[in-house]
Amino acid sequence: MRPLEPTHDGQHRPSAAEVVRGSCQYRSGLSAICGPDFCCNEGGIPVGDQRAYAAGIVAILLGAVLVFFMFPKKDEEERLLAEYHSEDTARLPPQGS
Question: Does a structural domain hold residue 10?
Answer without folding.
Answer: no
